[in-house]
Amino acid sequence: MVALNEKVVLEVKRLSKKFDSSDVLKSVDFTLEEGETLAIIGSSGSGKTTLLRCLNFLERPDAGYISVRGNALFDSEDHNVSKKDIRQNRLHFGLVFQSFNLFPQYTALKNVVLAPELLAKERKDYKANKKSVIEEIRNDGLKLLEQVGLSERRDYYPHQLSGGQQQRVAIARALALKPDILCFDEPTSALDPELTGEVLKVIRSLAATKKSMVIVTHEMQFARDVADKILFMDDGAVIEYGKPEDVFDNPSSDRMKKFLERYNSI
Amino acid sequence: MGLWNVTLSLWSGFQTTLLLFFLTLAFALPLGLLISFGSMSKFAPLRYAVKIFVWIIRGTPLMLQIIIIFYVPALFFGTPISTRFIAAVIAFVINYACYFSEIYRGGIESISNSQFEAGQALGMTKSQIFFRVILLQVIKRIAAPMSNEVITLVKDTALARVIAVVEIIRVAENIMSGGLIWPLFYTAVFFLLSVGILTLMFGFLEKKLSYFRA
Q1: How many structural domains is chain A composed of?
Q2: Is B113 on the interface with A (CB under 8 A)?
Q3: Structural domains in chain B?
Q4: In CATH, what number is assigned to the domain containing residue A251?
Q5: Counting CB atoms within 10 angstroms of each CB, which of A111, B11, B147, B214 has the fewest?
Q6: Contacts of B137 in chain A (CB under 8 A)
Q7: How far lies A88's CA from each of A119, A205, B4, B123, in Å?
Q8: What digits encode the pLDDT tens for the residues A141-198?
Q9: Nearest to A218, CA basis, from A190, A243, A238
């Protein structure tokens, strides 16, 4: 057994996934320490998004191991672990989607508090303390909207918000269940260039509060600035994994060099 | 027979029409949702069984179905369905549930998968995702085709006369056999008023749901 590092919040080992016969993930390994931000970069189709979806149990990996704080959530070699409740596993992770995916019929605030409210209903003491529980969830929701700078927009519906505002609500929504790890799937790719800044600013502020995060992104400068570690993927495999200055300035692989050349020439 | 007496007679028949209409809606709307789940099931035998059933019901005349449901139990099992009216309700419920199920299916499948996934990522259960996230978006999208079906149902109720359910057309025909033809034409007013009210109600529903975009 590997010695347990107390600071490790997420451990991923030999994670593999096939779609039909093509290997989308080829034995991916990485660890995330408490409070760290990991940026996953790579060209389209390299498996970044699939990796993130496996972490959030939206895809089922074919093989490998995932643990959060030493607690195994998925282990293809241990049946008892694989039978674990997928819904409980998901609660360890928050996910911010590329296309926001807010619920259109609910206001910004309701988008944030809906899942916590539904989860609270499963608590045994819910009926006795209904009022105070709902009140508490609402206050938490208001705080989160304040944190992403949208207090005044709490009663707006998604279609009344700009893309950047919608994504900030989506971040607040993902934080509402207090996940151990917050994941972002290309959070600015669907935004107009002038709106990416406000979303990146929120992510930066979260990094500053030492929230553990995994970010799939095409924003190289942002990844370099905000991430503690960079993971470069190509063709489903991890090619480079290390500190930003090492990966960007002294890449050891030709593929990373080529990727950076292409990126810089745009 | 004067206008007033004719109106009263037709109204008594129209009450049967309305009862058939509302009972059909009350049972066919939820049953249609169940059938739509069956037609989208990942379990292939169930999915195919449901699709074949829907094909049979949509592929044969409603009038024939009413006749079959009324006569077949008596022919084969010796126990007739207790009343003609109940036989008509059963036939209408099954028939309309199948049409509704296809409208539901189209509506549910038109909702982006990302809405399901957003709910899943937030730890919601399947039924929470369906009832708290998806359903209202589906209702908004299917309001227009649903209004079509519901309006058709108002008029289809006249088919119940084939097994001698005394609905409004049947009443008018009875009057006609006494030598008076205009009451039959007059029944159109009842249908027009009902459809007018339904059109207003669906317009109200669509307006009510226009506060969000989906």
Answers
A1: 1
A2: no
A3: 3-211 (1.10.3720.10)
A4: 3.40.50.300
A5: B11
A6: 104-105
A7: 11, 28, 68, 7
A8: 999 999 999 999 999 999 999 999 999 999 999 999 999 999 999 999 999 988 999 9
A9: A190
